[in-house]
Design goal:
This protein is α/β, with parallel strands linked by helices. It has 15 helices and 9 strands. The strands form 2 sheets. A 6-stranded parallel β-sheet has the order 1-9-6-4-2-3, with helices on both faces. A 3-stranded mixed β-sheet has the order 5-8-7. Helix 13 crosses helix 15. The structure holds zinc ion (ZN).
């Protein structure tokens, strides 16, 4: 068996009603909190009011930074960094989807480290431990509540790009996972964030950095998504399905906290930045294609994936069983209403060929992807998406 390390210093509170503990927990970490969230959804659903009341009941002082937009930029977190210092906040609370939680991580970092945030992009560049951080996911996808990463967008770069800060210092102290907070997610967001969690699991499972422990978690995420995502799409108020999906997304976060993601996420970013395709959906375009390239290198794992997706593989030759894993994944995507074509965007061949070239340059991601792809192999994946 492979040697490995498992490190997860975040305390996780999970279950219905756990959000009520936020006030007491925040108070333990500091006298004044900066609450970081998006512009509209927490306000619309009444969650913002609810959380403010919970904090006020414990006499927590609060400043609000509710300016987070999808794919948070460096500029945005710099602004948040100024607020956290000016308001002398001692703890940061990030509430929302991946964007709000990632922004909160970077803002907590800027609470104790000198700007600009740019200097911390990359691996282990954070100098001082960030301000204590509490994360509260309201979607079931990113798993950011248990990862040491924040993904930020360099809007000024040409073309714009997504970069990350990766540092064990970014693990939050506490994450509160209350499935009730995800009950009002509309079907499209439920599906797209679910696909993100699924992608974290499968990428982590295929990754050359996978470990026996991350593999167990990854297969469990696959089983959870397969069983519960269709239920949550059919019955959005089904509490059991919401609880399992939130749990699954968190396990997916634990997976990538140890393995990182592979080429799939790297390729997906371009679709998000150029065409506004949601992060989870963007990954789903590439996951089957990249998995298919790994059929030889990951024969056993892809057949285990087939089983986790409910397929019978007894009696099949190993390559056939592995192929079934990829097909089962495509069938699952179809089942939840994902359409694997972007033909309607009319993207020119020259353009998607350039995307293939860009992907080929993602050295760090290719290093952990079990199959080293050629330009031709990647072009074939893009061709299917844009012309198929
Ligand atoms: Zn993701």
């Amino acid at each position: 068996m492979k040697n490995f390390q498992f490190f997860l210093p975040t305390r996780v509170l999970f279950g219905e009603g756990e959000i009520e503990k936020l006030g007491k927990e925040a108070k333990k970490l500091g006298k004044k909190a900066l609450l970081v969230t998006g512009r509209t959804s927490a306000r619309k659903t009444g969650l913002l009011d609810q959380v403010m009341k919970i904090l006020e009941a414990e006499r927590c002082k609060i400043s609000l930074f509710d300016q987070v937009e999808p794919n948070p930029s460096l500029k945005l977190v710099e602004e948040g960094g100024k607020v956290v210092k000016k308001e002398k906040c001692e703890v940061v609370i990030g509430m929302g989807g991946g964007s709000s939680m990632d922004a909160a991580k970077a803002i907590a970092l800027l609470g104790t480290n000198p700007p600009p945030v740019e200097r911390y992009l990359g691996e282990r560049k954070v100098i001082n431990p960030p301000l204590p951080l509490i994360l509260i996911p309201t979607t079931s996808g990113t798993g950011s509540e248990v990862t040491p990463y924040t993904i930020l967008t360099l809007t000024e770069a040409k073309p714009p790009e997504k970069r990350s800060i990766r540092d064990p210092k970014l693990f939050p102290q506490l994450s509160i996972l209350d499935p009730e907070l995800t009950l009002s997610l509309p079907p499209s967001l439920t599906r797209d964030t679910g696909l993100d969690a699924f992608s974290h699991a499968v990428e982590g499972f295929l990754s050359l950095r996978s470990t026996p422990l991350s593999d167990s978690l990854a297969l469990e995420v696959v089983r959870i998504c397969k069983k519960w995502l269709p239920v949550a799409l059919r019955e959005p108020k089904n509490k059991e399905s919401r609880a399992w999906l939130l749990y699954g997304a968190c396990l997916g976060g634990m997976v990538i906290a140890h393995t990182g993601s592979i080429l799939v996420h790297g390729m997906g970013y371009r679709l998000t930045l150029e065409y506004g395709i949601s992060h989870g959906r963007a990954n789903a375009f590439f996951l089957p294609g990249i998995s298919r390239l790994c059929l030889k290198e990951r024969e056993v794992k892809l057949s285990l994936l087939a089983q986790a997706l409910g397929e019978e593989i007894k009696g099949l030759a190993p390559q056939e069983a592995a192929k079934k894993g990829v097909e089962a994944m495509e069938n699952f995507f179809r089942e939840v209403g994902f359409i694997p074509s972007l033909r309607e965007l009319k993207v020119k061949k020259k353009v998607w060929k350039a995307y293939a070239k860009e992907a080929l340059g993602m050295k760090k991601r290719i290093e952990v992807t079990p199959h080293s792809p050629t330009q031709k192999e990647l072009e074939e994946i893009y061709r299917k998406i844009f012309e198929g």
